[in-house]
Write a structure and sequence with these properties.
Blueprint lengths: L1 E4 L5 H13 L3 E6 L4 E6 L7 H4 L4 E5 L19 E4 L2 E3 L5 E5 L6 H13 L4 E3 L16 H14 L3 E5 L3 H7 L5 E4 L7 H7 L6 E4 L6 H13 L5 E5 L17 H8 L4 E3 L1 H5 L2 H13 L4 E5 L17 H19 L2
Parallel strand pairs: 7-8, 7-14, 8-9, 9-10, 10-11, 11-12, 12-13, 13-14
Antiparallel strand pairs: 1-3, 1-4, 2-3, 5-6
Helix pairs in contact: 3-4, 6-7, 10-11
The structure holds phosphoenolpyruvate (PEP) and manganese (II) ion (MN).
Manganese (II) ion binds next to loops.
Length: about 325
């Protein structure tokens, strides 16, 4: 069960609710987020939830049987919108396109990307500075210097930044320069990292693990919410299957299923999802039709020279064409 309580609930009210929950054989836990306060009761057996509805401090009470609760649609029917300020919001009534290089490489690349995004009305740049690479010999990112420069350029162009955080110690260093912390596929079940991001008051873009189920993704999101951060965006980026005709199997089935199970926004990464430049567009448009709240794309001024993932990266011209088609597809879907 989830009990929404007043954010300023006092000790006495909390104890009374805890006692009522314990009396029916359930275990109570208080969750305080930046936006609200909740008491979760876990346990087995049936009881009449009405006996808790009238307790002082209680705003609302819901029976939630999922093993993820706070991110479940069972208590929050309305879509969650993640507000980034300055008129940028993800989910609910908005369709968001985030784009940028796989890796932040140079000043001129970041500047050209910022200009490209601004010209096309996009407000979010992606770009990794700490890169999880399969081989230690590959380019592993420009680090904090790259991020600081990215932040300086993006702020001038009124563009928000989404970038991957790979480990706990990076959170504090990155905090001032990041608008959304990205948790990559390889860290999707790094529970210590998820706990720590739950204590941060900036949104988290949580990618599905390569072998993660939909349920596991939602439980990872639950970690972040449980630790105090409600601003979560889910991202389908493809899973590893027996198929090797492309990089990953982009599981677009996950989009309607995630949206039915959870109130959180769901975006799709077709770049990593298929890994082949010429097929990024059809998969991006398919993601829109599947009901995604946004897409995240790899773009580069000269993709063939990119230091990572050039094979799946769109040129600015290809990207511009796709932004228009994706927005048109979203409008078409809305008007169906
Ligand atoms: C990325 O988006 O830069 C990335 C590394 O993606 P993923 O974690 O999905 O592999
Ligand atoms: Mn990449």
């Amino acid at each position: 069960m989830i009990i929404q309580v007043k954010k300023d609930i006092n000790e006495e009210q909390q104890q009374q609710i805890f006692k009522t929950i314990t009396d029916v054989g359930y275990t109570p836990r208080l969750i305080q987020t930046q936006l609200g306060a909740y008491i979760i009761g876990t346990g087995k057996g049936k009881f009449d939830i009405r006996r808790m509805g009238n307790l002082p401090g209680v705003l609302d009470i819901h029976r939630v049987t999922d093993n993820f609760k706070l991110v479940s649609r069972m208590w929050k029917v309305k879509d969650t919108a993640v507000d980034l300020g300055d008129g940028v919001s993800i989910g609910r009534d908005d369709f968001t396109i985030m784009a940028g290089p796989c890796s932040v490489e140079s000043t001129s690349q970041t500047l050209q990307t910022a200009i490209h995004l601004q010209e096309n009305g996009l407000r979010m740049m992606r770009g990794g500075v700490f890169k999880p690479r399969s081989s230690p010999y590959s380019f592993r990112g420009a680090g904090m210097e790259g991020l600081k420069e990215m932040a300086e350029i993006c702020r001038k162009h009124e563009i928000k930044i989404v970038t991957e955080v790979m480990e706990l110690s990076q959170i504090d260093q990155m905090y001032d320069y990041v608008d959304i912390f990205q948790v990559g596929a390889r860290n999707s079940q790094n529970f210590n990292l998820l706990d720590a991001l739950g204590k941060v008051d900036k949104p988290v873009l949580l990618k599905r693990g390569m072998s993660g189920t939909i349920d596991e993704l939602l439980q990872s999101a639950e970690y972040i919410f449980y630790a105090g951060n409600e601003k979560i965006i889910l991202c389908e980026r493809g899973i590893r299957t027996h198929e090797n005709a492309y990089r990953n199997t982009l599981d677009l089935n996950a989009v309607p299923i995630l949206k039915e199970k959870s109130h959180l926004p769901v975006i799709v990464d077709p770049s990593h999802g298929i890994g082949i430049r010429r097929f990024v567009e059809p998969m991006a448009l398919a993601a829109v039709m599947a009901g995604a709240d946004g897409i995240i794309l790899e773009v580069h001024d000269t993709p063939e020279k990119a230091l990572s993932d050039g094979q799946q990266t769109l040129s600015f011209d290809e990207a511009r064409n796709l932004y228009q088609k994706a927005n048109q597809t979203y409008q078409f879907l809305k008007n169906l």
